[in-house]
């Protein structure tokens, strides 16, 4: 299984270099396959189908997939935000579309932070090269290596920015491109009905009895 | 019904700032027959504009001053060079901070007006008695509660001063945090009571009751259930046909004549054109920070130190919302995100007590003022992981099982804490930026630390599985929202800026009514007192106008 996984990873990296924007969509569409670490030859057909579907979905909505981020960099950012809220035991930052929220933020209300991303990601790549000589990218690192890399940079201002954007992208209003299907709200138990009647919780219900 | 005045028309009163105080002044003066223009630097939004959008209203300055347009610099003391930091924050739209506030509506205690006499001097601070007493303000607290619509249980707080009437509306329904707080506090022999809130528990004066959506603090209320001046008194003022609310009007200077009386204000309109609005009298309600800044910006040959500043006290004695938070995790879901933020309070630790060995006190409330993303970023224990699989697992449990206590603690008036003009930085209109100088008094810090231990005791008595506390560093208080002092009220024109009726000592047709008049900061929660002062000052202003003293 691990051999098949790593050979698929090598294929993936080469593909991502050639066609980074398509790679981005494939990642999005096949996340469960990746998570189960069971991607095989048969899965590649699914990838193609998913890719087609994803492109259809994009074409049907007017904005392009990314308005500010270079797709290759988006893949790298997403490798990190997907460790901030991983896809363990249910959807994480990746499934929530946090990267799309970040792209939208950098295009609109946080446009002044584009440079912070550029220099921040350059700093992370520098650290990666130091820690894992010969590695090609953050996405190409194993999950354990990614975690090790983040531990080395978790006190930086840029990581705090990434963390902040990840939380708003995971738990903010879905209209900004993140929190897809309200996966963030479902995780924490936030029910967005926006109007409630008491009792609200266990203890005030107890009191009412 | 709405009226438009020409700028060359000298209206009876020009109110600057349409917030908690300005809205009250507009209503009181216009319903009494005076012609009023209100200049508000922010937009005129209504309930239709508000959304449950944490990204827009918590992450971005949706309803508050935007530091990209109006930078603020901060330094700890005079020896430092101030750096751009959003040290303070205020509501910037018609309704001001009363639109986005949590809606806590505490009256000050009798002791708050005479702490210097009761406690004596505190080294390094200038504690002073107010020139008015609680009894002078009591009728106006009552008037505010009825005019605006406040929910609460009169007499339930045993430490409060005497009140002439109960609240007009019953208290809001208790949340799980309130029930647990009651249990813990009562076990310790304390006296929890239903929080007085500027939110409608029942329909009132044509407005609907709260639907418990939970989006109060930082948000505008799309149900019009939060009793902001925007939905309560400002519509009444506009209905008179004598009051014009003029939004997007950013005042840069008050003008004076040869006699040293104010003649109106120069402001930038939405297109950044300069307009001079004439007036017989000016009421400055621009908040505890911008009011001082505007007086300093209004310097002239005759008033080289700025307006109303012969004492040199304009901008001095800034006080803000010191405090500290303790959080508790409980076995069962509390779902604190539902419903208003605060439902229970104690004032047992409110009054300063020399036996403690330091000056200070705390009002403590049970609350939850996080939204999903802000909880993920700030609501978790400080020693918990901040990312990763374990963090995600904790988040799934903690959001619905956590409650917060918040202590609102004293902030001593210190001469060195101030609002001044930054010598270098300019805002987007080319005006000198606001510079904030602020440091804690040692007793402020001791009080906060002491309040944290008291809060943890309560949470533990309530059965919390786990407790943790917030930081109390200066940066943890920023941006400060409760802006007090800076135009101190007093009988001595050498030691204060306004008299006991909120009239500037130096200029007889200038009134200053907002948090800036506060002599001391009590235990925060300034809105009820700001509005009571406004009702009282409006009465004196009308009498003075009728005597011809203002024209």
Write the layout of secondary structure elements.
The complex is a heterodimer of chains A (209) and B (551).
Chain A: H1 2-18, H2 20-29, H3 31-35, H4 41-60, H5 71-84, H6 93-96, H7 98-107, H8 114-131, H9 143-153, H10 157-171, H11 183-188, H12 202-208
Helix pairs in contact in A: 1-2, 2-4, 2-5, 7-10
Chain B: E1 11-16, H1 20-31, E2 36-39, H2 54-59, E3 72-75, E4 83-84, H3 97-100, H4 115-119, H5 134-149, H6 176-187, E5 193-194, H7 233-239, E6 243-246, E7 250-256, E8 262-268, E9 274-284, H8 290-297, E10 323-329, E11 342-346, E12 362-367, H9 372-379, H10 389-401, E13 402-409, E14 418-426, E15 432-437, H11 442-461, E16 466-469, H12 474-477, E17 510-512, H13 527-546
Parallel strand pairs in B: 1-2, 1-9, 2-6, 3-15, 9-17
Antiparallel strand pairs in B: 3-4, 5-11, 7-8, 8-9, 10-13, 10-16, 11-12, 12-13, 14-15
Helix pairs in contact in B: 1-7, 1-13, 5-13, 6-11
Structural description of this entry:
The complex is a heterodimer of chains A (209) and B (551). Helices cover 66% and strands 0% of the residues of chain A. Chain A has 209 residues and is mostly helical. Chain A is elongated. Chain B has a domain at 1-72 and 88-101 and 106-149 and 228-313 and 483-551: FAD/NAD(P)-binding domain, CATH 3.50.50. Chain B has 13 helices and 17 strands. In chain B, strands 1, 2, 6, 7, 8, 9 and 17 form a seven-stranded mixed sheet that branches. A six-stranded antiparallel sheet of chain B has the order 5-11-12-13-10-16. In chain B, strands 4-3-15-14 form a four-stranded mixed sheet, with helices on one face. In chain B, helix 1 (20-31) packs parallel to helix 13 and helix 5 (134-149) crosses helix 13 (527-546). Chain B starts with 10 loop residues before the first strand and ends in a 5-residue tail after the last helix. The mean pLDDT of chain B is 97. The interface between A and B is large, with 43 and 46 residues.
């Amino acid at each position: 299984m691990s051999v098949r996984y790593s050979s698929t990873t090598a294929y993936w990296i080469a593909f991502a270099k050639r066609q980074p924007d398509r790679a981005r969509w494939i990642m999005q569409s096949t996340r469960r396959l990746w998570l189960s670490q069971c991607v095989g030859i048969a899965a590649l057909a699914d990838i193609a189908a998913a890719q087609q579907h994803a492109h259809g979905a994009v074409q049907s909505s007017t904005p392009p997939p990314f308005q500010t981020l270079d797709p290759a960099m988006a893949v790298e950012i997403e490798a990190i935000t997907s460790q901030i809220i991983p896809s363990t035991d249910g959807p994480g930052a990746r499934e929530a579309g946090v990267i799309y929220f970040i792209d939208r933020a950098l295009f609109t209300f946080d446009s002044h932070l584009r440079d912070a991303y550029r220099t921040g990601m350059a700093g992370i790549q520098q650290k990666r090269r130091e820690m894992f000589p010969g590695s090609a990218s953050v996405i190409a690192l194993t999950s354990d290596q990614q975690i090790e890399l983040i531990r080395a940079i978790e006190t930086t201002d840029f990581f705090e920015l990434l963390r902040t954007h990840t939380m708003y992208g995971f738990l903010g209003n879905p209209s900004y491109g993140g929190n897809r299907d309200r996966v963030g709200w479902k995780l924490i138990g936030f029910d967005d009905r926006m109007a409630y009647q008491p009792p609200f919780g266990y203890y005030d219900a107890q009191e009412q009895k | 019904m709405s009226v438009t005045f020409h700028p060359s028309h000298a209206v009876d009163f020009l109110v600057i700032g349409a917030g908690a105080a300005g809205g009250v002044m507009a209503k009181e003066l216009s319903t009494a027959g005076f012609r009023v223009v209100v200049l508000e630097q922010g937009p005129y939004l209504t309930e239709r504009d508000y959304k449950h959008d944490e990204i827009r209203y918590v992450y971005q300055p949706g309803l508050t001053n935007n530091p990209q347009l109006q930078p603020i610099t901060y330094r700890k003391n005079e020896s430092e060079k101030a750096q751009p930091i959003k040290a303070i924050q205020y509501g910037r739209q018609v309704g001001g901070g009363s639109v986005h506030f949590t809606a806590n509506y505490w009256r000050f205690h009798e002791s708050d007006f005479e702490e210097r006499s009761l406690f004596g001097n505190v080294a390094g601070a200038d504690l002073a008695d107010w020139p008015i007493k609680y009894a002078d303000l009591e009728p106006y607290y009552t008037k505010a509660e009825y005019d605006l619509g406040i929910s609460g249980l009169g007499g339930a707080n045993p430490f409060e001063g005497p009140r002439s009437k109960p609240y007009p509306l019953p208290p809001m329904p208790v949340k799980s945090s309130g029930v647990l707080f009651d249990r813990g506090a009562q076990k310790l022999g304390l006296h929890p009571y239903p929080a007085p809130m500027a939110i409608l528990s029942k329909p009132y004066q044509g407005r609907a009751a709260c639907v418990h959506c939970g989006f109060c603090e930082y948000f505008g209320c799309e149900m019009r259930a939060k009793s902001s001046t925007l939905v309560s008194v400002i519509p009444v003022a506009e209905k008179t046909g004598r009051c014009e609310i003029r939004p997007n009007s950013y005042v840069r200077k008050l003008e004076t004549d040869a006699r040293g009386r104010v003649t109106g204000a120069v402001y930038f309109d939405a297109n950044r054109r300069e307009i001079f609005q004439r007036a017989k009298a000016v009421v400055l309600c621009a908040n505890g920070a911008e009011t001082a800044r505007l007086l300093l910006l209004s310097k002239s040959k005759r008033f080289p130190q700025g307006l109303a500043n012969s004492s040199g006290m304009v901008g001095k004695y800034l006080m803000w919302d010191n405090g500290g938070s303790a959080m508790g995790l409980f076995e069962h879901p509390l779902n604190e995100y539902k419903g208003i933020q605060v439902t229970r309070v104690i004032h047992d630790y409110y009054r300063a007590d020399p036996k403690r060995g330091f000056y200070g006190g705390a009002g403590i409330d049970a609350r939850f003022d996080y939204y999903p993303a802000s909880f993920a970023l700030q609501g978790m224990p400080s020693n918990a992981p901040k990312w990763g699989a374990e963090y995600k697992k904790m988040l799934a449990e903690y959001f619905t099982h956590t409650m917060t206590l918040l202590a609102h603690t004293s902030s001593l008036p210190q001469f060195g804490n101030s609002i001044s003009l930054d010598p270098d930085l300019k805002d987007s209109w080319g005006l000198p930026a606001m510079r904030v100088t602020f440091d804690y008094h040692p007793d402020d810090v001791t009080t906060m630390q002491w309040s944290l231990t008291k809060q943890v005791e309560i949470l533990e008595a309530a059965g919390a599985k786990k407790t943790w506390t917030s930081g109390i560093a200066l940066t943890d208080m920023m941006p400060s929202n409760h802006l007090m002092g800076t135009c101190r009220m007093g009988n001595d024109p050498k030691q204060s800026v306004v008299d006991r009726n909120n009239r500037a000592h130096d200029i007889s047709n200038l009134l200053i009514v907002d948090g800036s008049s506060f002599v001391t900061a009590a235990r925060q929660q300034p809105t009820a007192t700001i509005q009571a002062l406004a009702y009282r000052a409006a009465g004196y202003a009308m009498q003075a106008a009728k005597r011809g003293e203002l024209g």
